[in-house]
Specification:
Elements lengths: L1 H46 L2 E2 L7 E2 L3 H8 L2 H33 L3 H16 L4 H7 L7 H8 L16 H12 L3 H12 L2 H10 L4 H12 L1 H16 L3 H7 L12 H11 L3 H26 L1
Helix pairs in contact: 1-14, 3-7, 3-8, 3-11, 3-13, 4-8, 7-12, 8-11, 11-14, 13-14
């Protein structure tokens, strides 16, 4: 009995030492997560129940900000509608396109695959690439698209692409799709490369006859984690559209708020009007939208 007890004690002490080493290696990442993610979330939730202008101490106001947001702020409803349109259009479509292009590129020779991967990934890390689209869809006759349409006789005067509510949303969706082939695209490429080729050979023996059957029975099941990761990234990107609308159409200064998103509305109150309590309430609502959307997508993909 005494020997068994001593063994259990020694085993426990050894485990504690191993756990201490593991936790010490996790500590820097945990610290960064708490400082830059967890604490800001709690601060935003707290400030959403206050009136705070960044100069005076926050004053607790209860549910006033949320009541104002949901029942009195008509502009927020426009931003909500635009954000949902972006999420519904760009989220699933960019997810499918990222996987489709990754699947096509994965079938190419090695050197060509590397080149095409860089080509597709470059827009997402190129910084402010909006000037390309500003030139293409410029509102005057010097814009590339307007110039071509006028030279072909399709239109007689320039179209105001970024100021006309009938066009600016379409252009911004196209730009967002172009920029969204980033991290998810790389994850899909990595997932496709990690599939063991012997599985395809075994599947051919079992009766799998074409690429689409290989994709359905072998590739997708092996890429479950990458597919979930890509879904999270695409959902987050779809709901966080703001820089594009601000750069191309003015965001909260767009005509009839036609390009206003929740991010633009939050930035308006947070960085222009300095109503940080109200801006925090907007951010909490957006956080809940993204959270429950991710839960729904996880349930669907599983």
């Amino acid at each position: 009995m005494a020997k068994n007890r001593q063994k259990r004690l020694r085993y426990t002490k050894r485990d504690k030492r191993e756990f201490a080493v593991s936790y010490s290696m996790l500590a820097p990442f945990l610290l960064v997560f708490c400082v830059f993610t967890l604490i800001p979330i709690f601060c935003a939730v707290f400030l959403s129940f206050t009136s705070f202008n960044m100069l005076e101490f926050p004053v607790f106001t209860g549910w006033v900000n949320y009541r104002r947001l949901l029942f009195e702020d008509d502009v927020f409803l426009i931003a909500l509608k635009n954000t949902l349109i972006f999420a519904v259009l760009t989220g699933p479509l960019s997810y499918i396109l990222a996987f489709f292009f990754a699947w096509l590129i994965n079938e190419m020779p090695a050197k060509l695959r590397v080149f095409m991967t860089i080509l597709f990934y470059a827009p997402s890390v190129s910084g402010n690439a909006y000037f390309i689209w500003q030139y293409m869809f410029s509102n005057d006759s010097y814009g590339l698209v307007n110039g071509l349409l006028m030279s072909w006789g399709i239109i007689s005067e320039p179209i105001l692409w970024f100021t006309d509510p009938d066009y600016n949303m379409i252009i911004i969706v196209i730009v967002q799709l172009w920029l969204s082939l980033g991290v998810s695209f790389l994850a899909f490429i990595a997932g496709l490369q990690s599939v063991d080729n012997t599985q395809y050979e075994a599947a051919a023996v079992d009766g799998v006859k074409n690429r689409f059957q290989e994709l359905y029975y072998i590739t997708l099941p092996n890429m479950k984690d990458m597919l979930l990761f890509g879904a999270v990234m695409q959902i987050s990107g779809a709901f966080s559209v703001g820089d594009i609308t601000q750069a191309l159409s003015g965001g909260y200064n767009s005509v009839q708020y036609s390009a206003l998103t929740i991010i633009n509305h939050m930035n308006d109150y947070g960085t222009v009007r300095y109503e940080m309590g109200y801006a925090s309430a907007i951010s909490v609502v957006l956080f809940l939208m993204v959270y429950f959307s991710k839960k729904l997508i996880f349930k669907i993909l599983k």
